[in-house]
Amino acid sequence: MKRNIKKYLYIKTHLMKFAIALFVFSLIAGSVYSSFQEGYDLYKKGKYYEAEAILLKEKEISPKNLDIYAVLGWCYLYTGRYKMAIDISNEGMKLNPNDTRFLSTIGRSYMELKRYKEAIDYLQKAITLNPKNPYYYYYLGKIYLDQNKLYYAETALSASIMIRGDKYFFYSYRGAVYEKMNRLKEAEQDYKKALSLKPNDPHLKQALIDVISKEAEQESKF
Fold it and tell me: What is the mean pLDDT of the chain?
């Protein structure tokens, strides 16, 4: 009888310890998630430095959370700290080298630094892994436009539009490409489409006026 009581008390004690440990773990896990969410919400509001402070603390607590590295990379990218964006993304890639968020952040950072070869390499890797993301083609198109590689720029921007046709800046940049190629009617159509998606934008309005003026000037010569 005494042996059974001791056994019962032993089991009860260990079950209580396990329950307490499980409760504490759930509190910690919930705290980590809520803190990450707080940092992510600040990032979405454009409060990048405040988000960074929270996410760096969370990185120490949860160093294998890929989302933390991704959002930190975006915070650095949007505040012009491109080297830091590259470094934190490389840290994330050590955990998962196929995460396209890291590849695209590195590619975009190199694009801003005008290190176009590296930018293209990383963006092409991102496209290989996730060919349905329109933004990767868009960034490539911007790079090729800067390099005056107009055929490649048109191809990349057309791909972004085929995947997602509701972004005014896809059409705006392709319109700029067509204008440089002297394909003015197509440029006009793209600027009009961009304006339909973002009415009253002064830059788009001016671009449309300019390209229509060029068309009229060319027609007057014939």
Answer: 90
Per-residue pLDDT, averaged over 98-118, amounts to 98
> Strand ranges (DSSP E) for 52-93?
none
Crossing angle (nearest 10°) for helices 150-163 and 168-180 = 160
For residues 120 and 106, is the Cβ–Cβ distance under 8 A?
no
Identify residue 37 by its one-letter amino acid code: Q
Residue 212, both tokens: 């229509």
Containing domain of residue 157, as a range?
A: 135-222
CB 152 within 8 A of CB 117: no
| Residue where one domain finishes, among candidates 131, 153, 172 | 131
pLDDT at 220: 80
In this predicted model, which residue has the larger pLDDT, 34 or 70? Answer: 70
> In total, how many domains does the chain have?
2
Please report, rounded to a whole number, the percentage of residues in the chain having pLDDT higher than 70: 84
Residue type present at position 36: F
